[in-house]
């Protein structure tokens, strides 16, 4: 029998786990042609998430878990999941039931038809602010313009991946991960299915804007790319101010004449070029910062515990 891993990154999800398990159970009992593994990645939760998972495992041997040594973020949690998943196919599911497990049988059907990556595209997104929807739409559009690789808009991480996609993803070990881009980048046979995204079943989203801003700040202060970042922002600021100033000087000169010959044009050019230079140095800095992070060549994560077994140091899985 083929084994299907349901990969669930979970960070402080104590409120939804019971409900999630029940919904999954119903779906799995109907798809009785397959063996299932429910693989929870506990991403350093501070609530009872891990205890609840351990309780589940006592009564249901299909439940496995990887307990990360701290909170690494969803992207890294997923890559831990790819390393530890045993299935012939892996289905990535959010713990909060925003991705309905009832879609799983349809995904499996397409997988049987020979598709390697069956991804669920959101037809609607209930319970999310217009700003989140708007910014996400803009983000996808801009990203698509910048690359030749076809991206899947309005698609989250909810998808079924064949073993060979998982093997491909396991070879990508970069530390600053954007997994959605990787799904597109690896290619293979893709199939789209549509669904209506539900609001969270319970608990809170981990990505409110305040937290995102906090995270950005933490990133700036804890790494040494700090001066490079500053030049980007400063460059944008100076360029913008110089532009506004330029318009003002042109206007002033046309209507009131020049006080000192050549001064306005010189001032505008100096300021404008200065801003542009700072901006481009900043952009180079952004990339240099990424290179810096990758050359450190650190492991992506550390595992505290895998199915009640304490893990020593880094266990390289691939
Ligand atoms: N998550 C995680 N680590 C984190 C943040 C989130 O593993 O640091 C998990 C979370 O438990 C959930 C999924 O990632 O299963 C999506 O998170 P969330 O629902 O908060 O994000 P949203 O749906 O609001 O984008
Ligand atoms: Mg969610």
UniProtKB/TrEMBL annotation:
Q: What class of enzyme is it?
A: transferase
What keywords tag this UniProt record? Glycosyltransferase, Membrane, Transferase, Transmembrane, Transmembrane helix
Q: Please give the start and end residues of each transmembrane region.
A: 230-251, 263-288
One of the entry's Gene Ontology molecular-function terms is: glycosyltransferase activity
Q: Does the keyword Glycosyltransferase apply?
A: yes
The EC number of this protein is 2.4.-.-
Q: Which residues form the Glycosyltransferase 2-like domain?
A: 5-167
Pfam families found in the cross-reference section: Glycos_transf_2
The name this protein goes by in its record = Glycosyltransferase family 2 protein
Question: What species does this protein belong to?
Answer: Rossellomorea oryzaecorticis
